[in-house]
Amino acid sequence: MSEKGREMSFALAFIACATGTAGLFYLDRDKSQRISWALWLPVFWLLIIGSRPVSAWIGIWTGTEVAGAATGQLESQLDGSPVDAAVFFLLLIGGIFVLARRKKQVVQLLQASVPILLFFCYTVSSVLWSKYPEAAFKRWTKDVGELAMVLIIVTEFDPVVALRRIFSRVGFILLPASVLLIRYSDIGRGYDPDGHPMNTGVTTNKNTLGLITFFIALGAVWGLLHALRDKGDINRRRHLITRAVLLAFAVTVLYMAHSATSVACFGLGTVLILATISPIFKRRPSRLHGLVFTILLSGVVLIFFGGESLVIGALGRDSTLTGRTDIWNAVIPMCPNPLIGAGFESFWNSYGGSIEGLSRYQQGINSAHNGYIEVYLNLGWVGIVLISIVVIDAYRRSIAAFRRSPEIAGLMLAYVATAAIYSITEAGFRILTPTWISVMLATMAGTVYASGRVGSRVKKSMPLAVAYNPPVFSPEK
Hints:
The chain is an all-alpha fold. The chain has helices at about 5-25, 40-50, 55-60, 75-80, 80-100, 105-110, 115-125, 135-155, 160-185, 205-230, 235-255, 260-275, 280-285, 285-305, 310-315, 325-330, 345-350, 370-400, 405-420, 435-450, 465; strands at about 190, 195-200. Helix 19 packs antiparallel against helix 20. Residues about 65-80, about 305-310 and about 455-475 have low confidence and may be disordered.
């Protein structure tokens, strides 16, 4: 096909994609559900970390390279152009403004979330021993921004409705756009370090595409199950259509991304969400412990104690987890201080250039491809202990919330479990990643719904919200 013909095909496909996306937003509308304008702040945040930096999109649109936009997604978001820094700063300021108006609820949540507060206090302290404290502190403020986005969601009038709207708004934009770019544009395709073609969609890497997609996909499964069960919803048919379409797009993009870890996590999370609506587990919530830990322990034992060939083969990897074990063996001895690490998000800028023992295509990496090792390199054993406490606490709160509010707890439980699994082969606890956001979300939402007290401002027209005892932490007038 000629260049002109390709441009024409892309233009037609773009118009169809934009029209379809607008149609999904129209069908998903629901004036009976109260959602504040502030929810757009976490939506924009997820749109950015789930795709490319704003500077990169500007560069693509104008045909010019913006400083920092072409250096890789994570690095450009952390150290990139002033445009990206300004965008994140404005979102953070907007989040602080919103949370200041919800001060009472925010204070209650933070007081009840001691593990997360300890982790944030330690990470900001670690800036002091970073080689580049100014850069480390800027990265820490982005982590504070992520916490602010989570707090906005859980202090909404009804967090369950807010989450469903988050998944639809982000998913309706990113997933169809990914299919569009993969099928009709070179922007959505690239090559891995071995020279093999890969589909990247709206992102710059197939694993990043897989991560944001499985994050949305679990929300789509959860939302579709809710629509199937909520027969009293006057907009049920429209909601069924939009959530089924969203799930179909998510499965399609997961297939296109060929990200084995994301596919496995989506399968695991779906099993857990389905299990939470089963009467077997509703009658005996303690059985969930057995289900979750059997899956987690089986995976760890098979991968690290002799059954790796079976599991890795099923995930489409080689016996060294696609070179990941080579990276792990090379970077672990490079940790400057096993107790406290290199400082928050500082290892790769400070010591990454001197790592030996990696193949040619692994040079220049900026991730350990393991969330636990990544925490160790930056924060040492103290960080490992604290992040473990955070994850365990998020799991504990999800279980506690399940006893009172199974609808939201099922999703939170799936996010905690998949974050733990995902972090075995990817840096899942790093800032600006949906997995780290989902762990904080599980902690905060679990805190809200485990209280079991009905918020005074929850509408009587929300049967599921009333049935599942929505939070006491609802925004003030």
